[in-house]
Amino acid sequence: MKTEKEKMLAGELYNPLDRQLSDERHHARLLLKAFNDTRDDQAGERSRLLRELIPAAGSGVWIEPPFYCDYGSNIVLGDKVYFNFNCVVLDIAPVRIGSRVLFGPAVQIYAASHPLSALDRRTGLELGKGIEVGDDAWIGGGTILCPGVRIGARSVIGAGSVVTRDVPEDVLAAGNPCRVLRRLSG
Q1: pTM of the complete model
Q2: From 80, 114, 150, 154, active-site residue
Q3: What's the superkingdom here (predicted)?
Q4: Domain 4-183 classified CATH 3.30.470.20?
Q5: Would you list the domain boundaries of the chain?
């Protein structure tokens, strides 16, 4: 029988009130509070806290506080990823970010979801769908990435977009809902 965490990571309905999951979220909240309270002259402490929060982070990752996530342990970051201020990652499903990806301020990454049926929502069970962002992508400020989307390598998402579907590689896409505007070269 699967644990609630195994169900969560597999994108199945799971109980978010499970003791293990509650404890892991609590631990992440404590790390986030400490990280978000650091000063600019405490780069070493920020780095230490981020390594504990997001163990699968590559080298040269920089996240401007405040930053928020559910677990941190379900986030995989490539090298030289940059998150500007006020970003949120609801990582109840795997969130995989390639190398050299830039996130503008207030980007929201929502791997978390709820059942569409009101009867199913009454059970309190939740689910999620993983999100992927390819190498060298740039996600403009205020963008929302919805559950299950994939952003192709080298693509640019315009500020304020709501990404509800996959975006291919090497394109400029924007809007609500986000749509491809044109191909990018080089």
Answers
A1: 0.96
A2: 114
A3: Bacteria
A4: no
A5: 4-183
